[in-house]
Amino acid sequence: MLGLMQDRPLLISSFLTHAALYHGDREIVSRTIEGPIHRTNYREVERRARKLANALAGLGATFGDRIGTLAWNGYRHLEIWYGTSGSGLVCHTINPRLFPEQISYIVNHAEDRVLFVDLTFVPLVEKFADKLTAVRHFVIMTDRAHMPETTIPNALCYEEIVEAASEDYAWPQFDENTASSLCYTSGTTGNPKGVLYSHRSTTIHSLSANSADAFCLSSRDVVLPIVPMFHANAWSLPYGVSMVGAKMVFPGAKLDGPSVHELLEGEGVTFTAAVPTVWLMLLQHLEATGGAITTLKRVVIGGSAAPASMIETFEKKYGATVIHAWGMTEMSPIGTLGALKAGMDSLPYEQQLAYKAKQGRAVYGVEIKITDDDGNELPRDGKAFGHLMVRGPWIAKAYLKNEGGNILDKDGWFDTGDVATLDPEGYMQITDRAKDVIKSGGEWISSIDLENAAVGHPAVAEAAVIGIVHPKWDERPLLIVVKKPGAEVTKDELLKFLEGKVAKWWLPDDVAFVPELPHTATGKLLKTKLREDFKSWRLPTADAAE
Amino acid sequence: MLGLMQDRPLLISSFLTHAALYHGDREIVSRTIEGPIHRTNYREVERRARKLANALAGLGATFGDRIGTLAWNGYRHLEIWYGTSGSGLVCHTINPRLFPEQISYIVNHAEDRVLFVDLTFVPLVEKFADKLTAVRHFVIMTDRAHMPETTIPNALCYEEIVEAASEDYAWPQFDENTASSLCYTSGTTGNPKGVLYSHRSTTIHSLSANSADAFCLSSRDVVLPIVPMFHANAWSLPYGVSMVGAKMVFPGAKLDGPSVHELLEGEGVTFTAAVPTVWLMLLQHLEATGGAITTLKRVVIGGSAAPASMIETFEKKYGATVIHAWGMTEMSPIGTLGALKAGMDSLPYEQQLAYKAKQGRAVYGVEIKITDDDGNELPRDGKAFGHLMVRGPWIAKAYLKNEGGNILDKDGWFDTGDVATLDPEGYMQITDRAKDVIKSGGEWISSIDLENAAVGHPAVAEAAVIGIVHPKWDERPLLIVVKKPGAEVTKDELLKFLEGKVAKWWLPDDVAFVPELPHTATGKLLKTKLREDFKSWRLPTADAAE
């Protein structure tokens, strides 16, 4: 027996039409690539998104075509998000920080028909424009006055095509499972793989992300999404903020401390979100200048783990509550968020901080569990750590063109590749990547915990821990260290320093000193390369065991 | 091109399993029909809901069967909600305030297989138990010690069937469009009609209702749903509160001022919701006793329009923000909610109050518009009033068994039967029921506005306004008045009193005095009866016009 409710599809265009109707005057503020601050509002963005939808149809884009963007957070990028997805095209946001050969691979793999390019990235695209086999039009996201000299063939001017297009356009209704947007994950191995979101998944995800124990976004908020729109949907903010009609502030290309601080204070920002690196720059700037934060209430930290000291500084010194977040491109991206539960507000701050330094609880709509290598569920005791498995309506079931094959287990769970603990209150903490865990005598050692402990030593600039084959224990940890310029430290001093900070049997069997560590284009440690470089490393304990 | 997100259905069981896993210890407090306050938690409710699902299967209920409830708000009713919907049965909540013949009609029309009955309603059910053709089992919602002597055939004891059932039960996965619950609307004409909700509509509705500009429910809230669970899903609270894991407090049968006040203060309630009548009783009690409200932050007023004075009293005297709500059984029920928009907080309070006294803005997910008799959309200028039309994924497309035939227009809009204005900020105000509007010379006169003005006279106990046929104007208003005991007022005095309070051409052409006005079982004015009684009334102005 089916219910008798209206068969209205959940469509992304409805976020913007709702905002334009009920919050038409609410501002969208952007720091432009051209320089000045630009101000528009939801009514105008919705009108121009309609014009853009007509313009794209005029360029030959048809339902389901992928439309690429290489762009910072700004109002034109927002217009493209809605103009494409809203009209049934697929908005493909591309990370410009990838290597050029990765970007051209992605554009070709997605078969992007049109590529929108911010001024910043014109020189980048010039390097491979002739290799983009499916792209029929390049659009530079600026006005005629700022159009650059470029070797990109037949480059169009964004403002000209929008200006020329009719605003007479009705947002179409279609199946909510239609693809809306596309984002590639850049793993540490193999080619990037495309995650294809739908209108349905995006809508449900945004509703849940907006809820009171998550982002708690209201029309009265002023939101600064610093996390890039090319990075996992900017954690759903451009969608969710539109849905509630909050004021939105876009930082453009300037993510440095002074620029971010200027926007926070100048625009009365109440809510913002970024990776720890951005917050480090802001906090250093505030420290150096004695600057204050006056309107900010909530700050989301995600992308990588937020140090407890950073959380404490925001909360104690600047009066902004930290929401620690974890997610993945494959998860739209939100998985867990660190809101405190009832009664925790009255715990001593140190205990609150211990919860906040974890990655948070699963939001409604996401199921999570941890399992051992055989797929058995492990206890939620805060101690056991295992493969972090996730399931839910905004989590990928496959990659574009089925790259990588089947990615779900028989019960529909997706293996995040992370290793984590779950505590009795439901808070999750990532302890490692599964492939980086050191398997010693049937037990797991977290490489990340060891690295975090090692970088606490004043002479250590950066540290990596990998497993080295061991005749008795299968694997034992090797600590690889980059020393700070001019600093000196010995193997024995480092091992002594680690004693008491980690379990005794976790202590590395050896330490190697190197001038630098290998990284991916987006700054992740490239442990595959390290394992290759150190594959014939002989641990001193190996001799003793044989 | 379809997205590649997991095909996980949106199911009601997930609200409760999420609560049990992440907020297992969070309390569910109930004032029982038996007398004492009862305390349980989400873990226990989820466990007992599983037992109940097994018990119902044991009683022969199969997927899609309707299971009726005649019950107050309490933990057993909550267990029934989840035990039925969660297992693929349809939870049919029945309004015990209807006439007995309406209730037996509804139970037979829905073909309820099992009927759960609170102790209060055992005498009611005894009146028609033998007429309930489809019901195979009656279950009295109490324990063995409190089982009453009853003529209800083979009455089962709730605690006994739950106790006897196994808790070994896995919540099944099925199509999210499956019917989850059923509620009949009692109009003023014809038989009640069944609105059949789905798991999908209920989930999306709850997510939107929980959002920051709506109820803004968090795990840290303590929620007292006074609006009955038999009345339009208790405005989604038992669902939404579970979803976030807030503490839930159920008032049972006692909705009087002292009982409600005791729960508010005793349980630390932060959020509550009820119709104006309940709030009137509470405010009178507080006034009489000098009682205080200390923990309450938000109070939802819906069901009928909240007087501005009531809103002001809650906000100014008791420090609780009022959320004025409007909806319908056909809308799950939430349509509009009165949260202030950005910047309105700094308006003078009188202006804030003017917005708050309207019924609010459409929540995300609900489309609303007003139209004239020909279906043309009317301006959102706060003045034009027209048929209020709604559309969205949690709004009915038909009634059970297609009673009443097609209820949507060609574009999918549902006519609410209300007449309303929409102002430029998006706030909606109901001005009348469409069938009660007086159509005078092609213009509309609001019967409700006239009635509200008339009851302002100190001698008027109750007033009704209906249209009377007029040879020149088609219709002109007749004011029908019940005087307060011992009070006297004349027609001329009343008309003089109304002058300046309504437009001059709205002034009634005549006044009739009656000892009492007819009402429906749920207390609505029965204007069909009035129109019948006064159909041959001759207006004095009619003679002059001929």
Please name the defining characteristics of this protein.
546 residues, seven-stranded mixed β-sheet, homodimer, alpha/beta
How would you describe this protein?
Two copies of one chain form a homodimer. By secondary structure, chain A is of the alpha/beta class. Chain A has 16 helices and 25 strands. The first copy, chain A, has a nine-stranded mixed beta sheet with strand order 2-1-11-10-12-13-14-15-16. In chain A, strand 19 (414-422) and strand 20 form a beta hairpin. The longest helix of chain A is centred in the first third of the chain and has 17 residues, at 42-58. The interface between A and B is large, with 73 and 73 residues.
Short characterization:
The structure is a homodimer of 546-residue chains. Chain A is α/β, with parallel strands linked by helices and 546 residues long. Chain A is 28% helix and 24% strand.
What would you call the structural class of chain A? alpha/beta
pLDDT averaged residue by residue of chain A: 95
Q: What oligomeric state is this?
A: homodimer
**Count of distinct strands of chain A:** 25
Portion in beta strands of chain A: 15-25%
In DSSP terms (H or I, runs of 4 or more residues), the helix count of chain A works out at 16
Q: Which percent bin holds the helix content of chain A?
A: 25-40%
> What is the CA-CA span between the terminal residues of chain A?
69 Å
Radius of gyration computed on alpha carbons of chain A = 24 Å
The largest pleated sheet of chain A is described as:
9 strands, mixed
Shape of chain A: globular
Low-confidence stretches of chain A: none
* Most residues in contact, chain pair and counts: A-B, 73 and 73 residues
Strand arrangement across the biggest beta sheet of chain A: 2-1-11-10-12-13-14-15-16
